[in-house]
Model the fold of this input.
Amino acid sequence: MPTPSSLYGVLAEFDTPDELLAATRRAHEAGYRQMDAYTPFPIEGLAEALGFHRTRLPLIVLLGGIVGGIGGYLMQYWIAAIDYPLNIGGRPLHSWPAFIPVTFELTILGAAIAAVLGMLILNGLPMPYHPLFHVPRFALVTRNCFFLCIEARDPKFDREETRRFLASVKAREVSDVEP
Amino acid sequence: MSEDVGRPQEPERRAQDTTSTAPQERAAVIEPGYTYASVTDKISAIVLTRRTPLGWLVGFGCSFALVLLLMYAITYLLAVGVGIWGINIPVAWGFAIVNFVWWIGIGHAGTLISAILLLMRQQWRTSINRFAEAMTLFAVACAGLFPLLHLGRPWFFYWLFPYPSTMGVWPQFRSPLVWDVFAVSTYATVSLLFWYVGLIPDLATLRDRAQRRLARVGYGLLAMGWRGSARHWYRYEIASLLLAGLATPLVVSVHSVVSLDFAVAIVPGWHSTIFPPYFVAGAIYSGFAMVMTLAIPIRAVYQLEDFITMRHLRNMALILLATGLIVAYGYLMEVFMAWYSGNPYEEYMTLNRMGGPYASLYWALILCNVLVPQVLWFSRVRSNVPALFVIALIVNLGMWLERYIIIVTSLHRDFMPSAWGMYAGTRWDWATFVGSIGLFLALLFLFLRFLPMISIFEMRELVSETAGQSGSEA
Done:
């Protein structure tokens, strides 16, 4: 069902994390998929209630670490054994134990940068503009209010129907979100 | 101080400490009666609505005067060279390396609190982790200054990094000094990332609560459009946990690598396998001493006794006692190995430390780091805030003396008596050291004024968890 482009979605406000969690579960059961919950602090089980179970972030961090570690080791090997070999009393050029500390540090560096950039990019941040910022009450999402937004692009979305549904799950206040 | 923020009105959202096995015996990690709204308002008000306190202006002014002293000392150093310092052969590593190791050690407590205690799910870390992390960052910044200035020609510092230069030379990766470059720069980068990631949700809080446009735009840009989405939180928590898991081995490695700068050399007094663990313990020891030194005045001035409670101070005192004992074991083992190795140079070095020209400093170090902290065995001392503050200051001094003893007494008696010498810092050494303390404090004052010194979203989480637990148990 095509949705009117004049609406981003419908936003419902809740008083406590438990009410939000219960409403999110009900919304998922009712078949809504294109929705998101907004909270002042992380709430256990909320992402799962939205049907969001997996993220590729750990894999990205692992790859970042592997790239940092292997890259760091190969750099040292290439510098010390190939490009700039120094013969000091006939000691081996590929002196791997001496390369471990820098390899370790670069593994951590690669993984940490991957964790931060991966988190930001997967989250679509930075995003200075978002339709939700139009809703005056939404400023309280970083203080003490809990929100559930069912988006207009959800196939089941219907302004009146969705508003009624959100009122039925004990939302304190329901408001439209302009795009 | 304004009274409009503070105790909340909604008694049903009470936060009590139910985390310990014997709650009646332990103080709370947050005093009861706080709600999501009241913790948010109280912490963000320090940054946003209150007028700049006079004490802040005085404190920042004094620290900034010391920063100017640092600038003066550095300018003179760049103009004239490291000859203005007391360093010479045989003691070529003077104040610069003492201060470097001291500062980098101080930084370690911040990472320990934010990473290791996070992994161990220690709830009491929540209210002190933010400023401990900031302390880490500023301490590492001060630490990084010293080896760079010690280079002699600091403007060529980038020669330390492997880059394809037209000179065709590369850094020597078999040298601990090059490991140090990588360890410290990785540590600085990861600390900054960890700190910034932790700040993002709180920057969004400040954006939403700021009254003035400039503040709203500034915090808004830094918050990158954070809107508290559940999907975002999910990835955010995974990223935080992974960063904590990465920072934990990193923090151990950094001070181990710093200790290898000494241990890999064959100088008696440095060439010892106990150095890495004993340096790491010493770093945590000095770092917690610095956290206490800062936390005690901050909680008094900003009236944060409800958030940084006696439980925090007592726990930190216990960590101080434990790491202090590890450090004492390190000192004991150094003496034991000097005797047990049968190496005359080691033996002489140890006897010279205890009875030579620097003996008074050695015994001052033992007094500060080993004897005084033993009073922390007494519960009454651990509950006495002024006593804790004094002990923390003494430990800070002791840890500085420790590095001074390790560096100066090991070097000043070279293998050949003809190469013996004495070392003392000049006024420029002292100006740079005192100036770096000023830089540290000035950065800290700016942080206290412009960023939330306590993690607001984690305090809300703490309110939620403690309220939920007492509710379900009732």
Observations:
- DSSP finds 15 helices and no strands in chain B.
